Automatic annotation (TrEMBL):
One of its GO terms (molecular function) is ATP hydrolysis activity. This is ABC transporter ATP-binding protein. Pfam families: ABC_tran. Keywords: Antibiotic resistance, ATP-binding, Cell membrane, Membrane, Nucleotide-binding, Translocase, Transport. Belongs to the ABC transporter superfamily.
Amino acid sequence: MAEHPLIFARGLVKRFGDFTAVGGIDLDVAPGEAFGFLGPNGAGKSSTMRMIGCVSTPTAGELRILGMDPVRDGAQIRARLGVCPQLDNLDPDLTVRENLTTYARYFGLSRAESRRRADELLEFVQLADRAGGKVEPLSGGMKRRLTIARAMVNDPDIVLLDEPTTGLDPQARHLLWERLFRLKQRGVTLVLTTHYMDEAEQLCDRLVVMDGGRIVAQGSPRALIESYSTPEVLELRFSDGLDSGAGYAAKLDGVGERVDPLPDRVLVYVNNGDVALSEVHRRGLTPSSALVRRSTLEDVFLHLTGRTLVD
């Protein structure tokens, strides 16, 4: 961790009346880092991001962004932030280039500098050939890339990305990941929320898992997997009529460190999947299918936050 983090929070709290959205969290985000927030709906991710973005005042605790107080220095901080909201809010009446040049003018850039920045960013997000066209015909992935380009127009110190690839097809997601990775290579500090575990593994140097307004785990994706899961997971499916995976949980006790019965299969968290599968057969169990895979961040996420749907 850098000696002077760009984002520093201690005991950060956000309440709305009697409801505590963020319940006293500590954060440090270093320059050039890609930092992620994971958590189910209502975990406090968006409330934390809004405080970092200086559009919501903390209820209690200490928060410093770029070494400044967001309550006192909000305007100065916002001038050095780039924001990519969850929903694209591009202006359909302007061309692709005008969406960037007009936005750049809000930051005091000259017309010439605004055009230069716009052309450079459109090239970067691979939209230069669409510069003179309208926004509406663009695909979802193109609009997302344009929104990220707009977030970069003021050459920000920190870019905040709220669910950057939600709703995109796999090809668009991977192209966007590649562009965000390029930004990180340029030394841009990224702070993002995401529901995609593979996205967090791809992009984040470090992340926190939030649940109920608190941080329940933090670290690099690999460190979290090593701390909260096993090296491998054995997925077993049975077709003999026992009620889904629950009927086999007791039969598999002791095969691995943890058994997680699901409606359609059983997950057995193990150090060695092949050895565990041999033990399953030794016990006289005959799964209709068996898959050995490595543990992922999704296994960690579901272990820490549960499988109950939160509205």
